[in-house]
Amino acid sequence: MIGLVTRRFMQLIFLLVGISFLVFMSMYLAPGDPATIIGGPTASQSDLEAIREDLGLNRPVLVQYVDYMKGVLQGDLGYSFQTNQSVSDAIITRFPNTLNLAIASMIVAVIIGVTAGIISAIKQNSWFDVSSTTFALAGISIPNFWLGTMLILLFSVTLRWLPVGGLSAPFYTIEGMKQLILPAITLGTASAAMIARMARSTMLEVIRADYIRTAKAKGVRQRGVIWIHALRNAMIPVITVIGVNFGGLLGGTIITEQVFAINGVGRLMIDAIAARDFPMVQGTVLLVAGLFVLVNLIVDIVYAIIDPRISYD
């Protein structure tokens, strides 16, 4: 296990360096000029040259990238071209909202997906199974922005049960929970559908195994067979889906944050891309990439805890 963690951290370093280089070059090659955006339409040519000189944009791109990575190794992600705010401070301020939204969405997805998948497998071809499969297809097909808008129209505008948007209150308060309900459902629906499909298929495979038939022949009750013998083995592929989806949720909250006006990392990234704010884009992308790899490492560790037969030698 120690060897696995060490290898993954080494891979994480190389991956983040590669991602940072690709993002840096993509922003450099994209049309538009940060100096023009910062200076505005009334800026003269000399003003633009002064801005480029101040930000170091007139140096060779590889020199800019090397200087940026030197700062990253020292824990300095640079300063925003737009606001002159520290990128680290901006991310630290916004990240709790994104993290709370991702966790709430994953809780919704796991509760709905695992429960629906297990019941569908136990009651195969029943009305519940058909309904669950239909829900899974709808959940994967419906775009987040449309679902979020419909939920706002129904529960916020028409029924006035929940707030329209924002995430200003702490998540552990009643108001904070109310603010999280609609965006969590919006973001977690697609993940719930994928988890439900995986849980159903793996549970169907497991409950037909020989050791399950043996347990039933020994007189073990149906509940014991499902929860003690079948579920633990069926959950291994499901954990993969949960881990990958959670990593994706951390970086995929952009649309939901826009719809519900949540000041998270997703909105920060979109605003930075629109303004050609190189340091802010780099910082947010590095955060999302690092968290995604870290979540996958945690999933591998959980594998070994659930099934000791798994070896990483």
Automatic annotation (TrEMBL):
Subcellular location: Cell membrane
Coarse class of the protein's main subcellular location: membrane
Domain ABC transmembrane type-1: 95-303
Pfam families (alphabetical): BPD_transp_1, BPD_transp_1_N
Transmembrane intervals: 12-30, 101-122, 134-159, 179-199, 285-306
Gene3D superfamilies in alphabetical order: MetI-like
Membrane topology listed for this record: Multi-pass membrane protein
Keyword Magnesium found: no
GO BP terms, alphabetized: transmembrane transport
Tagged with keyword Transcription regulation: no
Keywords: Cell membrane, Membrane, Transmembrane, Transmembrane helix, Transport
Recorded GO CC terms: plasma membrane
Membership in a protein family: Belongs to the binding-protein-dependent transport system permease family.
Protein name stated in the entry: ABC transporter permease
Organism, as annotated: Radiobacillus deserti
